[in-house]
Amino acid sequence: MLTVAPDIEVLARFGRALADPIRCRILLALRDAPAYPADLADTLGISRTRLSNHLACLRDCGLVVTVPDGRRTRYELADERLGHALDDLRTAVVAVETDRTCPDAGEKGCC
């Protein structure tokens, strides 16, 4: 059963998904077009196992969905508005000091 999460939970899931550079790259690739895992792995230059783990996280966060396509499974953004949100975030002006890192940058985790 699909339910709508409260606003804070949605933002937290989105933030956790974006906290990993590989997941960001996957989301940006899927923003451009749906893709098959093998093609995504090749495009991103990562192993299929590693990609699979990140896709599972993004699926659990509710940001991507699977679409059966014959014997294959295609991935796409769960909602086209996510592509617009990614574009808005990507182009937002952020004040960053180049000699500092985010305090949570070393933490791993997923939704």
TrEMBL record:
Q: What does this protein do?
A: Metal-responsive transcriptional repressor for the cmt operon. Binding of cadmium or lead causes the repressor to dissociate from the DNA.
Q: Does the keyword Transcription apply?
A: yes
Q: Which Pfam families match?
A: HTH_5 (PF01022)
Q: Which residues form the HTH arsR-type domain?
A: 3-100
Which biological process terms from the Gene Ontology are attached to this UniProt entry? response to cadmium ion; response to lead ion
Per UniProt, what is one GO molecular function of this protein? cadmium ion sensor activity
Assembly? Homodimer.
The record's section on InterPro entries has: ArsR-like_HTH, HTH_ArsR_DNA-bd_dom, HTH_Metal-responsive_Reg, WH-like_DNA-bd_sf, WH_DNA-bd_sf
What keywords would UniProt list here? Cadmium, DNA-binding, Metal-binding, Transcription, Transcription regulation
Gene3D superfamilies found in the cross-reference section: Winged helix-like DNA-binding domain superfamily/Winged helix DNA-binding domain
Q: How is this protein named in the record?
A: HTH-type transcriptional regulator CmtR
